Each structure stands twice: as structure tokens, then as C-alpha cells.
Amino acid sequence: MEFFKELLTIFCTTTLLFGGGFCYFTFLFGSAEQKGKRAVQLSGGSLPKEKVQEGYDRYSSFFEHCPNGNEMDSSDKVPALVDTFYDLVTDIYEWGWGQSFHFSPRIPGKSNRHAMRIHEELAVNLLNVEPGARVLDVGCGVGGPMRAIAAHSGANVVGITINKYQVERARAHNKKAGLDSMCEVVCGNFLKMPFDDNSFEGAYSIEATCHAPKLEEVYGEIYRVLKPGSFYVSYEWVTTELYNSDDPEHVEIVRGIERGDALPGLRSYKDIAKIATKVGFEVIKESDLAKPPAEPWWTRLKMGRIAYWRNHVVVMILSWLGIAPKGIVDVHYMLLVTADYLAKGGDTGIFTPMHMILCRKPE
Ligand SMILES: C=C(CC[C@@H](C)[C@H]1CC[C@H]2C3=CC[C@H]4[C@H](C)[C@@H](O)CC[C@]4(C)[C@H]3CC[C@]12C)C(C)C
Ligand SMILES: C[S@@+](CC[C@H](N)C(=O)[O-])C[C@H]1O[C@@H](n2cnc3c(N)ncnc32)[C@H](O)[C@@H]1O
């Protein structure tokens, strides 16, 4: 009898501990890093719950069929693939990273959130726009940068993203932040933008144009919609001068980044200014914002590793319970893997997500 009583006590204590811990992670702790999305709200974006696994399989098979990445260059399937990718990852990004889907140099003594905001404000400071100016955000995500930039500069920001679910999220966040009168979000393809010629006084893109199969197409469109004399600034994902295409380790890191981040082939830093000039821009400034004295942008990823594995356990349990969609576990695992490749890209110095280029459309 005593033995059964003890067994029951052990069973109840273990259940309470695991159950309590799990509820803490998912309900109380909520978002993995910043308050916002909660684990129990993870979805497949615009994809119905039962289509998430199919969406992931379609996404990953695309990379299996073109293992050397460059075959995607000629593909007109890229925007649709990128759209599916953001259906799959948007909630996980918001849950585990926040509303700004980019990196920033670490700033000792400042929070990640603050460092990200400084990086965003730098972009609009470079544009030199007056309050009330109409500024374009090319590939706006759920609008973290857009809101920071509108609040900091007083500009009216119009964001474009190919992903419908992100449009819904961005509009809801804009409203909640009381910035919906200054921030507008449009669903569309930045390779063919639904805007008039010469209709913006400034434009920026933060870690978004890397998704374009041909950079000249998106740069050409930005050039078209900008008023003469206006500036465009971009933070580009590129390989640096340290990248050696004959080094198998370098090639593996780059392929890993491309697969986990829906990229149709990473470009070299050398191509960016050439392409900007080709479409008609004057290049005013170009620099890698990750270079010292900037502190490493990838420290945040490395420090987050334990939390990301904990998140993986939460995602597995939620999916097993039928709360999170089937397929989300594979998506989360893909992100775990890409986080390591990105950190390796930073450690080796062969990759930067913040190659900054400032251009001007001539008068
Ligand atoms: C510009 C792009 C996205 C850049 C980053 C915002 C994202 C790149 C990799 C993402 C993440 C990796 C690991 C995830 C982790 C496993 C999960 O538990 C919580 C979210 C992550 C940290 C996630 C967050 C966003 C990234 C850092 C690309 C796509 C061009
Ligand atoms: C990594 S996110 C960056 C979002 C935002 N700039 C930020 O920093 O939070 C890339 C964005 O580019 C958008 N994007 C990619 N390809 C696109 C295309 N062809 N047309 C429009 N948007 C696109 C994605 O939908 C996503 O919003």
C-alpha cells in the first residue's frame, strides 16, 4: 500500500512539474524573447492549418531540386516560394525575435530591441527626408522598422510585402501603436510595384532585396518610383571579400543560409554598387556596417541557442497536442539549423546581412 502511495506521489509531482513548466513556457512566458506572439498562437500564416506540412515539403523540395542555388536565378517561381516561406516563418519570427525581421550590430549596455531601433533609425537618417515626406519600405515584413522610422522621422511610410499574412499583421500592429495614419501597407511584388513613377521622396529596404532573383529588377523599380534627387538606402545580405568559392566549408555555409532563408543565391558585395549604377543610381556611400568597431550581430543568435532548443520542445509538444499545425516542427528545425549557419557566416566573416548602400536618383 505504502509503495503505491509513494508511486502516486511521484507520479503527481512529476505531472505537476512538467505540466506547470510547460504552461509557464507557453502561456505565461508567452513569446520566446519579446512580448507579442505566444507559442499557442503559432500558425502557418495564410496557409490553412492542414496545409502547413505540405507548404514546408514544397518549400524544402525546391532546394533539393536545385542544390547549387544558382539554378533559381532564372526562376519566376521565386516570389511564390518566398511567399510560402513567410507564411511558414512569420509567427515563429515574431514569437522568437520580435516585429523587426533583421539583424543589427550588438551595442554593449543596450538591449537587442534598442540596438535594432538604432539600426533602423540610421536608415532614415541617411535618407534626409522632411516630416510628412512619402517614403517607401521595400519588403516591409510585419512593419517593425516602418513604425520606428515613421515615429522617428515624421515621414509617412508605405510598406510593400508579397505576403498577405504579413499585411494583416503589419496593419494590426500599426493600429495598435497608433501609427496607422502614418503607416500604410500594400500587398504586392517589389519586382513590379503598384506605384506611380516619381511618387516617393525616399526609399529603404532592410534585409529584403536579397529575395529578388535579379537585383536589377527590384533596384530598377525603386529607381522608377523615386522622385529625382531622392535617396535610397539598402541593407543587403552578401558574401564578403573573405568568401572563397573553392573552400567547401564556405560553400556549405552559404548553401545553408540560402536554404533556411529562401534566398535565390547570395550575391557578392562587389555586385551591389555595379547593379545600382546600372539602373541609373548615383552611389553616394557603401560600407559593411558589421565591420569593427561594430560589435558582432551574430552574438544574439549564439546566445539564444539554449532558448531555441527549449522553443523546439515547446513546438513539438504543441504540435503533438494538435494546438500548433503539423509541419511547424520541421519549419522550426529548419530555423534552428539556419541560425547555426548564420552564426558560422558571422564567425568566419564570409557573410554580412548589413552591407549598406546609399544611392541617389539624379535630378
Ligand atoms: C532577413 C531575413 C531574416 C533574418 C532574421 C530575422 C531571421 C534569420 C533566422 C531566424 C531565426 C532563427 C532561429 C529561430 C529559433 C529557432 C526560434 O526558436 C525563434 C526564432 C529564431 C531565432 C528565428 C528568428 C528570425 C531570424 C533570426 C531573411 C529571411 C532574408
Ligand atoms: C526578412 S524580411 C524583412 C522585413 C523588414 N524589412 C524588416 O526588417 O522587418 C523580408 C521581407 O521582404 C519581403 N519580400 C520578399 N520578396 C518580395 C517580393 N518579391 N515582393 C515584395 N516583398 C517581398 C518579404 O515578404 C518580407 O516582408
Would you count the extended β strands for me? 8
- Helix count? 12
Ligands (ions, cofactors included): ligand L6FYQM2W, S-adenosylmethionine
Low-pLDDT parts are: 26-33
Structural class computed from helices and strand pairing: alpha/beta
Please estimate the helix content: 40-55%
What is the CA–CA distance across the termini? Answer: 91 Å
The succession of helices and strands, N to C, reads HHHHEHEHEEHEHEHEHHHE
Catalytic activity: 24-methylidenelophenol + S-adenosyl-L-methionine = (Z)-24-ethylidenelophenol + S-adenosyl-L-homocysteine + H(+)
Function: Catalyzes the methyl transfer from S-adenosyl-methionine to the methylene group of 24-methylene lophenol to form 24-ethylidene lophenol.
Domain SAM-dependent methyltransferase Erg6/SMT-type: 85-362
InterPro entries: Methyltransf_11, MeTrfase_SMT, SAM-dependent_MTases_sf, Sterol_MeTrfase_C
Give me a quick take on this structure.
The protein has 363 residues and is α/β, with parallel strands linked by helices. It has helices at residues 2-28, 52-65, 78-96, 112-127, 144-153, 164-176, 215-225, 248-260, 269-278, 299-303, 305-320, 328-348; strands spanning 134-138, 156-161, 183-187, 200-206, 226-239, 267-268, 282-288, 351-360. Helix 4 (112-127) crosses helix 5 (144-153) and helix 7 crosses helix 9.
